[in-house]
Amino acid sequence: MNRSSKLAFAAVALGGAAIAALVASTVTAQGGVTIKLACGTVGSQQALCKTAAERWAAKTGNKIEVVPNVASSNERLALFQQQLSAGSSDVDVYQIENIWPGLLADYFVDLKQYVPEATIKEFFPSMIEADTVDGKLVDLPWYGDAGLLYYRKDLLTKYGYKSPPTTWAQLTTMATKIQAGEKKANPNFWGYVWQGAAYEGLTCDALEWVYSHGGGTIVDPKGNVTVNNPQAIAALDMAAKWVGTISPKGVTTYSEEESRGVWQAGNAAFMRNWPYAFPLGNGDTSPIKGKFDVTVLPRGPGATGKNAATFGGHSLSVNRFSKNAKAAADLVVFLTSAESQKERAIVGGYNPSRPSVYKDADVLKASPFLGRLYDVFANAVVRPTTVTATKYPRVSEAFWNAANSVLTGKAKAAAAMSDLENELKRIKGAKW
Ligand code: GLC
Residue 33's Cα: distance from chain center in Å? Predict the structure, then answer.
């Protein structure tokens, strides 16, 4: 999704556009077939996906099978590319990221064949636009994501803070103080947990550090490699200092779920994560139930500092090699319907891809931040996927490896950014 589409998403979500019909039209499914579905696995994702798909199966007289999958975004992309390039029909419906349509478009059916136009119109037009490649509707958008700062309200109060930090410097100070106090009784306690492993998630976190310092988006929208700049270097230096001080050394191997594990056990004052961690943290058996809230991630210093959240999100596509594409498309329509999205927003904290769901009182009660955090979504920063096109996976890998080498102390930020600039220019070649 590009910047204007994401802004439109936020604006429509909160600005009060016409409420779309809550009932999705569905294509008529074939009966008696088994649809194999590759759901995501992070947090409650797989369980929610399976329950909803089973409801569809019961309703239509089909069967579903949730196939094994991997959590890491880039590993999933590699797996899917491997399966699809071999013409495999082992998976009928793929949960894909909204940064992949351009990479996988050839392997998916044009959903316009199966989904009525009226149904397509019920989604954020900007998301549909981002999921359309050369006129082909590659997927139906399922949910949007943006990085959030989770903070413990009770601990802020205990240590004399009235509100969450607004700058990274404040976060560092507060995390240091809270950690020093809490560690006395709990040696496992840390100030701040986030995603530092060498994978796509680190690209998201590090982009937030860099962008919030005014250091740009790695590659600018014109295609220039911009990452080797003083603000980006300062941003990475800052994060490297957290490792082993306010963040455990092991944070350099953490993805979303490792950070949530520490946080949800009550062992962290702050966490960077996506909205899915909100309902899980408030689950009945969660030790931190009711003790935390979310806000926008902090700003970098000075005049160039601004808030930043990386924009993410996921969609559903139908394999063009599927033997049951019509039924598979029907499942996609069912899973992305307003009713399913309402459940996913309430139980899973997933930001709906349909404007109508944002008006639902039950949804706003369960996930109040969906309405409140306008700025997080309005200021969300997109990864440079559009401009780098099919080379994005290599760009991202080079960036997360450079960031991880700084975090683990293998390289200094200035040298790492200079090497990264050269590497990205090599990947770019004459043009992206
Ligand atoms: C979340 C986001 C996705 C991002 C991934 C990184 O799933 O929705 O956009 O790429 O996290 O781990």
Answer: 32
> For residues 410 and 214, what is the distance between their CA atoms, to the nearest angstrom?
25
Q: Whose CA is nearest to atom 4 of ligand 1?
A: 312
Angle at 128 between CA 97 and CA 206, to 5 degrees: 35
pLDDT in tens, 316-338: 999 999 999 999 999 999 999 99
* Residue 411 to residue 389: CA distance in whole angstroms: 28
Q: Which of 148, 402, 109, 421 has its CA nearest to residue 259?
A: 148
For 379-393, give one letter per residue: b (16+ CB within 10 A) or e.
Answer: bbbbbbbbbbeebbb
Measured between alpha carbons, how far is 215 from 211 in angstroms, rounded to an integer? Answer: 5
Going from the Cα of 204 to the center of ligand 1, the distance in angstroms, rounded, reads 8
Distance CA 205, CA 112 (A): 35
Residue type, 7: L
Q: What is the mean pLDDT of residues 293-317?
A: 95
CA distance 156 to 269: 8
Residue with tokens 């960031």: 403
Name the percent of the chain lying above pLDDT 70: 92
State pLDDT tens for residues 111-139: 999 999 999 999 999 899 989 999 999 99
Chain segment 53-71, per-residue pLDDT in tens = 999 999 999 999 999 899 9
Residues 6+ apart with CB under 8 A from 97: 73, 76, 77, 312, 313, 314, 315
Domains present along the chain, CATH in parentheses: 3-138+312-377 (3.40.190.10), 148-308+384-428 (3.40.190.10)
Ligand 1 pocket at CB < 6 A: 73, 97, 145, 200-201, 204, 256, 274, 312-314
Contacts of 398 (CB under 8 A, 6+ apart): 420, 423, 424, 427
Encode 303-365 in three state secondary structure: CCCCCCEEEEEEEEEEECCCCCHHHHHHHHHHHCCHHHHHHHHHHHCCEECCHHHHHCHHHHH
Query: Which of 190, 171, 161 has the alpha carbon at shortest distance from 239?
Result: 171
Distance 238 CA to ligand 1 centre (A): 23
